[in-house]
Design goal:
Elements (H helix, E strand, L loop, with lengths): L18 H14 L7 H5 L5 H12 L10 H14 L3 H6 L6 H18 L5 H10 L21 E4 L14 E3 L5 E4 L7 H11 L5 E5 L2 E5 L5 E4 L7 H15 L9
Antiparallel strand pairs: 1-3, 1-4, 2-3, 4-5, 5-6
This protein binds a DNA duplex (21 and 21 nucleotides) through helix 3 and helix 6.
Length: 259
DNA sequence: AAGGACGACAACCGCAGATCG
DNA sequence: TCGATCTGCGGTTGTCGTCCT
């Protein structure tokens, strides 16, 4: 069987995806779906091969992706399933909603396999217990992955309900649970950024989470991107520019203020 | 402070099965 | 039925950030 050529085509870009490319891919799939991955990049105007687009979408941009560190239960599940399934990452991923095979594979190779080796000779329960100690602090990840339609607006959520009590705000907030308030991007106006800043000032524990197409971006109290979208890839300014750029394509927004 | 070592994770590669004409 | 193409999967690599000396 002759293999179809793919990325060896000249002129196709490789390497890390830029926020602009992500935006193009998200927008295109929201509008047209992804019936044919090979044809998609050309139709969407991306200088990527279809394979690269598919990987980026399935492993990172898909709306139902759950970002953030693995929970104790998830790690236990991976260990248990790996015992019976072996390196069947896709099968393991099927039992862990919101997690991708690539992500699970990475976690296995970077955390769990190492731990198994280190705990060789110990009881299995000790092994499982040890996973708890290595947990890192992480920003919250909402379980309510947004159910976006193709034209649906982005959402900004904050863990600080008090942030929405500021007078003069035109943000239309919606209670999603007792801890999270969602804000439709279409309701964001010139008060948006100052709203974020004032909300931040109102609470030392305030974290801001921008959710676009199921992709999460977290900002700490200094408005620095702390996890989620593009973690380790984009600097804070690039993140802010990206999200602001995304917002401004969904609604007419004022100039991004100086932080 | 510099730079080497290491860890984490996004992305790529290539194979194999599925699908289609 | 067969060959071409597409898609999914697992292994591997590359890059960036952090830690350590």
């Amino acid at each position: 069987m002759v293999r179809a050529p793919c990325c060896e085509k000249m002129g196709l870009k490789k390497g890390p995806w830029t926020p602009e490319e992500d935006l193009v891919l998200i927008n295109y799939i929201h509008l047209h779906g992804h019936g044919n991955w090979r044809a998609l990049p050309k139709q969407a105007g991306l200088l990527r091969c279809g394979k690269s687009c598919r990987l980026r979408w399935t492993n990172y941009l898909r709306p139902d992706i759950k970002r953030g560190n693995f929970t104790r239960e998830e790690e236990d599940t991976i260990i248990n399933l790996h015992e019976t399934l072996g390196n069947k990452w896709s099968a393991i991923a099927a039992r862990l909603p919101g997690r991708t095979d690539n992500e699970i594979k990475n976690v296995w190779h970077t955390h769990l396999k190492k731990r198994l080796k280190h705990n060789h000779g110990s009881s299995r329960q000790q092994l499982l217990d040890s996973s708890k100690d290595l947990k890192k602090q992480q920003p919250p990840v909402t379980a309510d992955s947004p159910q976006h339609s193709s034209s649906e607006a982005s959402t900004l959520t904050t863990s600080d309900n008090n942030s929405n009590s500021n007078s003069g705000s035109t943000m239309n907030t919606t209670e999603t649970n007792e801890d999270v308030v969602s804000v439709s991007v279409s309701e964001i106006d010139e008060n948006f950024w100052s709203e974020v800043l004032s909300a931040d000032n109102s609470s030392m524990t305030a974290d801001f989470q921008v959710v676009v197409g199921g992709t999460h971006q977290y900002f700490n109290s200094s408005l620095e991107a702390v996890n989620g979208y593009g973690s380790g890839v984009y600097d804070t300014d690039a993140n802010m520019d990206f999200w602001y750029n995304l917002f401004t394509r969904a609604a007419d927004l004022p100039e991004l203020p100086e932080f």
